[in-house]
Specification:
The complex is a heterodimer. By secondary structure, chain A is an alpha+beta fold. Helix content of chain A is 32%, strand content 15%. Chain A has a 5-stranded mixed β-sheet with strand order 2-1-5-3-4, sandwiched between helices. In chain A, a hairpin with a 2-residue loop joins strand 1 and strand 2. Among the domains of chain B are: 52 residues, Uridine Diphospho-n-acetylenolpyruvylglucosamine Reductase, domain 2 (2-Layer Sandwich), CATH 3.30.43.10; 103 residues, Enolase-like, domain 1 (2-Layer Sandwich), CATH 3.30.390. Chain B is globular, with a radius of gyration of 19 Å. Classes of the chains: A alpha+beta, B alpha+beta. At the A-B interface, strand 4, helix 4 and helix 5 of A face strand 1, helix 2, strand 3 and helix 6 of B. The complex binds flavin-adenine dinucleotide and FE2/S2 (inorganic) cluster (2 copies). Chain A: This is (2Fe-2S)-binding protein.
Chain lengths: 171, 330
């Protein structure tokens, strides 16, 4: 352990309360500073929609939004997310009404085992907002951070196209 | 992961004080290297100083045609800044061909320069690795070494430097600005990356308690014609086997100016000084490009699995120069 001078704002190594806004709700979670946002969501807050594939930034299963940008929860420390707005797959639907991208994944059979799907959907919604869904080539390139072990890629692209085109070609 | 303490720096002085206070403190920017290597047991940091609240995110055009890039500017934001896209397309392309959209939203330019090699022997935590455990040897010398370096290697380390954008920054004479207890320093990007020699564990000429605050790229008109080409085992989301940043200017068939740097083949982002010298004043022909590339790779040392990179790097250099000449951007 470091011998850092005892400043009040030096936190840990034991559990400390971390305040994060998750899906529009302020949440306080008691975690050690070494705990990732992914583990805080899954193990401490019961939000298991966000998946852990590799835990090293290579698969995209843990994709969430922080302050509206898609990022990887496995390489984000929960403590570093304090004070920021986090959106997870659980925050996407409007009550019982699925997000259009969730519906499009169902309608296009855009998964087999479904393990990568929450991450794919969190990425795909942003992909369209980012304006990089114009061609299939671009969809592949800018979704390449989301690996699908079942190789559902053609149907994932179809789901993205459906939402893009329904948005009035505003991609 | 070993236990950690964590603090958030309020400003640059605070960051320096916090990091200096503990012997195992490190800065935390996007965390895409640091958190990964902490979890792998490779990083031994015990205290993280989160620098993400520092106002170092600017990407600015300079009147001389150059750029200022704050250390905390994210890869995506730099890649898509209009001044970067138009004045330094190779920097933009290098960034956009690195990692994934999610990682590029997280990763900072300061962190990018400090990222560690992807050498599997460093990452596995057990193999002989002079970078991780000085004196243990280098398992890559005789082990699987397809991804390893052929330029700038030593008997102590043949790990490849993984950054894409650093290749473009080195090509355009970027300068890395730091602050530390001893004051501010400006370090040429080419000098920011050290050859392994006998001390592969020392990768940069800055102390653990020195903060990168920004990167300046001088005005470089030739960079408007620059290209960055990346050759890899899969089309996206993969590190380079070989990459090239190239920009060339030709007058009446004669090369008047040229910038060339290689990635994926060197123990550091590799400025091809010798090839540049061989080209300037000579004809801008494919044969001349080929000869210059051969000059650059003349001292390359290939091993069992990576010798193919010596030829691949030359072909990549020739293609990069050709595409810059003809204005083909990717
Ligand atoms: C799956 C994967 C794929 C990748 N693919 C590519 C690729 O294709 N091309 C590529 O170029 N990169 C690639 N990367 C690497 C990525 O670009 C780097 O991890 C990232 O740029 C590091 O930036 P960061 O802000 O996350 O740094 P951090 O992880 O926060 O920090 C990295 C290191 O730098 C130090 N540091 C950070 N900021 C400063 C500062 N301002 N001053 C001094 N020290 C500092 C930290 O203490 C730490 O030691 C990939 C990474 C992953 C995980
Ligand atoms: S679990 Fe985060 S990228 Fe794989
Ligand atoms: S549906 Fe199985 S991993 Fe994508």
């Amino acid at each position: 352990m470091s011998t850092t001078e005892s400043r009040q704002d030096i936190r840990g190594p034991h559990c400390v309360p971390v305040t994060v806004e998750i899906n529009g709700r302020g949440r306080v979670v008691d975690v050690e500073p070494r705990v990732s946002l992914l583990d805080a969501l899954r193990e401490h807050l019961g939000l298991t929609g966000t998946k852990k594939g590799c835990d090293q930034g290579t698969c995209g299963a843990c994709t969430v939004w922080v302050d509206g940008r898609r990022v990887l929860a496995c390489l984000t420390l929960a403590a570093a997310a304090a004070g920021h707005e986090v959106t997870t797959i659980e925050g996407l639907a409007d009550g019982d009404e699925l997000h259009p991208m969730q519906r499009a994944f169902l309608e296009n059979d855009a998964f087999q085992c479904g393990y990568c799907t929450p991450g794919q959907i969190m990425s795909a919604v942003k992909l369209i907002e980012e304006g990089n869904a114009t061609t299939d080539e671009d969809i592949s390139e800018f979704m390449s951070g989301n690996i699908c072990r079942c190789a559902a890629y053609p149907n994932i692209r179809a789901a993205v196209r459906q939402v893009r085109d329904a948005a009035g070609g505003a991609a | 992961m070993r236990p950690l303490t964590y603090s958030r720096a309020r400003d640059v002085d605070d960051a320096l004080a916090l990091v200096a206070a503990g012997p195992d403190s490190a800065f935390l920017a996007g965390g895409t290297t640091e958190v990964d290597l902490l979890r792998a047991g490779v990083s031994r940091s015990g205290h993280l100083v989160d620098i993400n609240d520092l106002p170092l995110t600017a990407v600015e055009d300079r009147p001389d045609g150059g750029l200022h890039i704050g250390a905390l500017a994210r890869m995506n934001d730099v890649a898509r800044a209009p001044g970067v896209v138009h004045r330094f397309p190779a920097i933009s392309r290098a960034l956009l061909q690195g990692a994934s959209e999610q990682l590029r939203n997280m990763a900072s330019l300061g962190g990018n320069l400090c990222q560690r090699t992807r050498c599997p022997y460093l990452r596995d935590g057990v193999s002989a690795c002079n970078k991780r455990e000085p004196g243990t040897g280098c398992a890559a010398l005789d082990g699987p070494n397809r991804g390893h370096a052929v330029l700038g290697t030593s008997d102590h380390c043949i790990a490849t430097h993984p950054s894409d954008v650093a290749v473009a920054l080195v090509a355009f004479d970027a300068v890395v600005h730091t602050v530390g207890a001893a004051g501010a320093r400006a370090i040429a990007a080419d000098d920011f990356f050290l050859l392994p020699g006998e001390t592969p564990e020392i990768e940069h000429p800055i102390g653990r308690d020195e903060l990168i605050v920004g990167i300046d790229v001088p005005g470089t008109p030739i960079a408007r014609n620059s290209v960055y080409l990346k050759f890899r085992d899969r089309q996206s989301y993969e590190f380079a086997l070989v990459s090239v940043a190239a920009a060339i200017e030709v007058d009446a068939g004669i090369v008047t100016d040229v910038r060339l740097a290689l990635g994926g083949v060197g123990t550091k982002p590799w400025r091809a000084w010798r090839a540049e010298a061989a080209l300037v004043g000579g004809p801008a022909t494919e044969a001349a490009f080929r000869r210059a590339a051969a000059v650059e790779l003349a001292d390359a040392v290939g091993r069992e699995q990576n010798a193919f990179k010596i030829e691949l790097a030359q072909r990549a250099a020739v293609r990069g120069l050709n595409q810059s000449l003809k204005g083909i951007r990717s």
